[in-house]
Amino acid sequence: MAKELCEGGAKVIMLEGGKEVSPSDLLSHKWPYELPFANLRGEKQAYFYQGDVATSIRYETQARVEVDRARVLGGRTMHWNAVTLRYAPPDFLEWTLAGVEDDWPLTYEELAPYYDRVEQIIGVCGNDDGLEILPAGKHYLPPLPWRCSEHILKRATDALNINLISVRKAVLTKPYDERPQCHHCGHCMDGCDVSAIFSSPGCTLPKAAATGNFTLRQNALAREILVDREGLARAVSFVNTDTGKTEEVKAHIVVVCCATVESARLLLNSASPQHPAGLGNSSGVVGHYLHGHINTTAQVYLKELQGRKPVNQDGATDHVYIPRFDYRDSHRGYAGGYAFQVNYDSYMFPRQAMLLKGYGAQFKRQVRTMQPGYVILGGFGKSMAAKQNYVSVDKNRVDAHGIPIPVVHFQYVENDMQVWQGMKKGLQQIVSKLSGDVFFEESTGPSGLASHEVGTIRMGKDPKTSALNSFCQSHEVKNLFVTDGSCFTTSSEKNPTLTIMALSMRAAEYIIKQRRLGII
Amino acid sequence: MSALSTSLDAWGATWGTHSDERAAWAAGDYKLQFFTPAENDLLDRVMEVIMPADGQSGGAHAAHVSLFADRIVSTGTDAANVDLFANLAVSSDSQKSEWRKGLQLFKEEAAKSSLAEALARASAGEANPQTDLERFFVKLKQMTLVGYYSSEIGIHQDLEYQGNTYFYEFPECTHH
Known about the structure:
The structure holds two protein chains of two kinds.
Chain A: H1 2-7, E1 12-15, E2 58-60, E3 64-65, H2 94-98, H3 108-122, H4 148-159, E4 165-166, H5 204-210, E5 214-217, E6 220-227, E7 233-240, E8 245-250, E9 254-256, H6 260-268, E10 291-302, E11 320-322, E12 338-342, H7 360-370, E13 374-382, E14 390-398, E15 404-409, H8 414-431, E16 436-440, E17 447-454, E18 480-482, H9 497-516
Helix pairs in contact in A: 3-9
Chain B: H1 8-12, H2 24-27, H3 37-50, H4 65-74, H5 93-112, H6 115-123, H7 132-148, H8 152-158
Helix pairs in contact in B: 3-4, 4-7, 5-6, 5-7, 6-7
């Protein structure tokens, strides 16, 4: 968004609640024995959760659900596996095609040009696999090479007529746009020290800065969006977390992009006489329709690879992907579906050690023997956009800066449970074709939201049931835009980031045009 | 170096740099913070039985895993970040004291026969621990495994892990 606006001639000031972590400060390549707690306490990722962000939240739910609130310059682009998938045309049409939820106020065809442009800017590796369920672009970098385990997995999925493809992800497999290629260390989630994986500080923010139109304020935690007499946004009040003082920045247009929970929190904390239920919330939907992905996993230790001489398998985490296949079953009994990510984990720690019973020399040998055969499959399933699931703010409990904290209210709905059951069945189906030791995740329900939470400031055609139009513009506050995952109407089994970026680019283009026309 | 720099030289500044630093527990250069020397000695011996030295690699003793345990227990927070390891969270004094009580149970059990037999009895209910001793075994084993496979010996000698380095090209599987 900042890059597009700056390149379009707008003067942009970006308020970042956290601060920059320089590549040389990243701990990605540290060995566990170089860290004070061997990374048991998340030392490698601690700088993505600055201040009290990790603790200033409350969950009112019995469900296994967690949201991700990274606070760092670049947000979650500093902390992701970069799986970069387009939504398919049916993903925008849940009501029309499945009779559930709502249709999006825009179509795949309207968004496709922006998918194209984003993919070229960020650099995406992969192939056009000719799959309707997973539309492809035309500008992919070479795909990542496959591990032995992935070739074996391919044999299994072929036997079931299930596709297994090279993953599409925002990881450079060759030098691109003055960024070096991936060096296959497997530490994507800990931050990429060379920016081979896309991050906004490593790719788009420097381009914004190069225009001369960009100002970055770090440690500037947005408290409230202030409005004028007509109820339009006029300024953002923020806490300078270095000084503790509240400051204010005026703006003609305010674009909110704090991630799904924080954006809803900000709008709800921006109540005023003009907007008593929160900014742009006369519909009452802001905060509601929180949803994301549900998960289940299986770890397999392939017999064919057990006992082999260890080789470097870390790579760029996921190298292959199993796209959704359950849509072929018209009697599956639920809306939406699931897909599988593969080998998104480091090979350094032998997870089977925590699952095997016993101890001693034989146990130790067994762990060692199994390790080269490790493959992990993780299901990512659609969860329903249900109004009953929401984010509120607790006016009686504030964070370290005096800002009311968010509260997450969430229960899985029936369709979620059915998707989860279907996902487990699909996983068992694939694993049944593999020879090896298998450990399925043991739980009585799904886990979520897989850091893919969306939906709390949804877009839609009807201002009574949505907060934003198809350009991420508030229905009622015309100079307010929300361009993170909170704008999603519904979600699919696909990872949301590419769609967030495409929607954001489309919104930026709209803002520039509207400004030139003097409309906003 | 700034993350907002697009200079390749800037990006490359960290290439190939590996530090020789070791956390104190890993280097063996560590003063006990929670366990007494006697408790640490017992812990060290039990952990070595769980994860012994063999022809491939050193065991828990050589990897200083009991010192790792002391580090974790003495600095307990509620921040065990991975569900898999949540059993190792030591967020309260009572959870810390469970370690001391557990070791005492082991000591008493070993006094009846031997350490090896005490461990065998404690592990009998691993799948569904019912007694304090059995529950402590589960926790003790997890601590041993996390410490061991986070150590130089566990990672490099035992598993011969080849990653966490800079590979210009990732070798595709040639077996299939």
